[in-house]
Q: What sequence folds into this?
């Protein structure tokens, strides 16, 4: 099978070797978890427990305040000590439930296995994903049940599992495909059944040959009546971006501004598929996830199963602490992750990685004038003109920025990565997108 | 946490490539061309190149006053490219004025690297051409004497005047002409390096050389097509001048149009104009059209379907 890919993209150093060979191990449960009540794109949750309540592991503590939202669960058993705003990975503090861990891990009695997939109806699968609090675990955290509920005039024919993991440094999905391949296939089958899709695709970049053979084996053993293929993808960032992944695996191009459902496709992350498999088999809601802790600034990198609400500080401590030259803490990967001002941040559903970068990565490089080399144009996966948008945005000429395609940018960062003049192109484009969106609302 | 963390917007890693590293790559690509020039025209060629480069860098250093002589390396590239368009030994002051004009008027009057509209080296060359034509064009071309490191030179008309050089001589460079333009072999070696390093793509040189060849066919068949490509400054212009990043389009379609335009103007001047050679003005004219070409060739966005009119 020839390699599949898209036009554009970059080949950064992938730096995955530090953690790719390290099996997932459970992180130590902290003495206190701080669980934010907003962990997904869409509406936040409101607390359904009160200070002083005893909660059990897996018990619902946050109820969604809208359709595009997902419930939130206790990740330890213990006593609710506080409910107040706390630091959040996306910047602004949000209300959080503080639970003092009693160390017992007493499971919530409501957690019960569901019927087998064969017996479940599509509606029941969607209800299970909603009740388990599933969101996209690649980092975007879009509520899964919403993706499984397309408008009635759209028939999804293909579900794609995103095993590309194109962000450098991260290896969580890679490990999951090695260790939990059967659950990936079960999750994919459930997605297909929920949507009535006739084709399932698992896309993996060719820098993970062991994951590809692991997935091929699991598909051969478990796919049953389901039509499931494993696709080997060319290793190139951002191969895992949803539009690029759909193009590479199906040849379909999602129109500008549209969602994958416009081409009858739904994408799901590897971790999300496993979470759905667990929700079906065990009734387990989403209160822990795999996090890659890595980068040159951490002493002992690894892949960990981290409970929701664990402070990044506690995780770093378990990894032997930071090296003396560590200077930057990023949640997510180096291309699209968010730098944090402090390690007093709780891990949430969208925390795919904790990346620690050192002094050499944060040196200030002077910004030069654009030399119009066009390298950003070559790498832009959306085929935009980043240099033009950036220069327009730099001058606050947002109408011009829009003309050159600012609103179609999904901020992969290839342009900024590539720019020899070290111009912060995607950063300027973000500002332009904000300004354009604000002017549209007026 | 006592340690101070750096917070910035993603991405958090960047390619090691810089403007300076690109300019160094261009200098590396010009090395075989420069070597061939010294081999063919002797040390006077080396002197011309050294004067052009030093004066260009000095001019830039004086204008920028940022305490760095090499800087981003672009001045050295401009100086060397200017020298490549000159005869083996024009008076030193002509070379110096060329470099001062190239850097001062060709580049910094517009705000420096990135903001200039026209290729700085060609601006320098054009000013010398119209001001001191007797020193940089006409009867100054000398016959190359490999290993002939002598002071006196025998003049020989340009192959674009005589139209009688052999294709073999044109390929190797053993014909009269500007320092960097005579040896197709050296230019192609340099161009391969630039392709390999990803600094030029095929569209500009392909369009330029392709259309010169095709139009040359009408001037006397296959061998004349090849003659027009190999003689004069087409290869130097197509690989090193027209591909100047700052002054050429960024869109893929724009690059092709730009290359075709350079070739068409060059051939129009050669075949119908008053001068034997048209590469300089062909490229300068297209430089002026670059912003227009870019805006008329905006690429189709991913997933965009052409609206039916």
A:
């Amino acid at each position: 099978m020839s390699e599949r890919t898209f036009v554009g993209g970059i080949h950064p150093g992938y730096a995955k070797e530090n953690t790719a060979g390290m099996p997932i191990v459970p992180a130590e449960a902290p003495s206190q978890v701080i669980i934010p009540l907003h962990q997904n794109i869409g509406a936040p949750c409101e607390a359904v427990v009160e200070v002083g309540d005893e909660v059990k592991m897996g018990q619902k503590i946050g109820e969604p305040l809208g359709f595009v939202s997902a419930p939130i669960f206790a990740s330890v058993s213990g006593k609710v000590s506080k409910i107040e705003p706390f630091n959040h990975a996306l910047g602004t503090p949000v209300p959080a439930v503080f639970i003092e861990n009693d160390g017992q891990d007493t499971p919530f009695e409501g957690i019960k296995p569901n019927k087998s997939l064969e017996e479940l109806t599509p509606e029941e699968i969607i209800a299970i994903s909603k009740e388990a609090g599933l969101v996209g675990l690649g980092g975007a955290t879009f509520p899964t049940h919403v993706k499984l509920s397309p408008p009635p005039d759209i028939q999804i024919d293909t579900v794609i599992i995103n095993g590309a993991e194109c962000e450098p440094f991260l290896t969580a999905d890679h490990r999951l495909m090695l260790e939990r391949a059967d659950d990936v296939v079960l999750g994919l089958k459930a997605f297909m059944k929920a949507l009535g899709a006739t084709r399932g695709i698992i896309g993996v970049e060719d820098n993970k040959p062991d994951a590809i053979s692991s997935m091929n084996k699991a598909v051969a053993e478990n796919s049953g009546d389901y039509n499931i293929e494993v696709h080997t993808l060319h290793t190139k960032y951002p191969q895992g971006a949803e539009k690029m992944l759909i193009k590479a695996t199906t040849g379909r191009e999602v129109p500008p501004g549209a969602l994958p459902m416009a081409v009858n496709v739904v994408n799901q992350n590897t971790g999300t598929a496993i979470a759905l498999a667990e929700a079906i088999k065990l009734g387990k809601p989403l209160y822990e996830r795999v996090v890659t802790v890595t980068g040159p600034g951490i002493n002992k990198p690894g892949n960990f199963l981290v409970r929701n609400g664990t402070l990044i500080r506690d995780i770093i401590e378990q990894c032997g602490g930071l090296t003396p030259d560590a200077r930057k803490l990023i949640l997510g990967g180096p291309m699209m992750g968010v730098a944090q001002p402090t390690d007093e941040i709780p891990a949430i559903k969208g925390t795919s990685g904790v990346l620690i970068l050192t002094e050499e990565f944060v040196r200030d490089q002077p910004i030069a004038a654009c030399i119009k080399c066009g390298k950003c144009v070559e790498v832009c996966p959306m085929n935009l003109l980043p240099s033009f948008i950036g220069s327009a945005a730099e001058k606050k000429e947002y109408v011009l920025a829009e003309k050159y395609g600012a609103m179609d940018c999904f901020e992969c960062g290839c342009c900024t990565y590539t720019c020899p003049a070290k111009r912060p192109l995607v950063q300027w484009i973000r500002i332009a997108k904000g300004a354009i969106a604000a002017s549209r609302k007026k | 946490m006592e340690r101070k963390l750096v917070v910035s917007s993603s991405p958090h890693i960047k390619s090691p490539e810089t403007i300076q590293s690109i300019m160094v790559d261009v200098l590396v690509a010009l090395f075989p061309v420069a070597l061939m020039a010294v081999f063919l025209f002797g040390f006077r060629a080396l002197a011309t190149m050294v004067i052009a480069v030093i004066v260009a860098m000095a001019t830039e250093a004086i204008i920028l006053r940022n305490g760095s002589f090499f800087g981003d390396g672009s001045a050295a590239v401009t100086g060397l490219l200017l020298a490549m368009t000159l005869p083996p030994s024009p008076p030193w002051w002509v070379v110096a004025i060329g470099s001062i004009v190239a850097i001062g008027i060709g580049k910094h009057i517009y705000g420096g690297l990135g903001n200039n509209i026209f290729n700085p080296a060609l601006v320098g060359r054009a000013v010398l051409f119209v001001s001191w034509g007797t020193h940089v064009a006409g009867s100054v071309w000398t016959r190359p004497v490999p290993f002939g490191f002598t002071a006196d030179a025998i003049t020989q008309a340009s192959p674009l005047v005589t139209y009688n050089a052999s294709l073999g001589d044109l390929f190797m460079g053993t014909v009269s002409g500007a320092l960097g333009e005579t040896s197709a072999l050296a230019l192609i070696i340099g161009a391969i390096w630039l392709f390999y390093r990803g600094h030029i793509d095929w569209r500009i040189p392909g369009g330029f050389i392709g259309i010169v060849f095709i139009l040359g066919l009408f001037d006397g068949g296959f061998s004349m097509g090849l003659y027009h490509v190999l003689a004069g400054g087409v290869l130097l212009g197509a690989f090193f001048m027209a591909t100047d990043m700052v002054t050429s389009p960024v869109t893929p379609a724009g690059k092709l149009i730009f290359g075709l335009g350079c070739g068409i103007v060059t051939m129009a001047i050669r075949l119908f104009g008053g001068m034997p050679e048209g590469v300089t003005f062909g490229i300068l004219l297209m430089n002026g059209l670059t912003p227009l070409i870019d805006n008329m060739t905006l690429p189709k966005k991913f997933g965009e379907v052409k609206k039916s009119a």
Remarks:
- The longest helix of chain A spans residues 425-441.
- The longest strand of chain A covers residues 78-86.
- Chain A touches chain B through 68 residues (CB under 8 Å).
- Residues 177 and 347 of chain A are 22 Å apart (CA to CA).
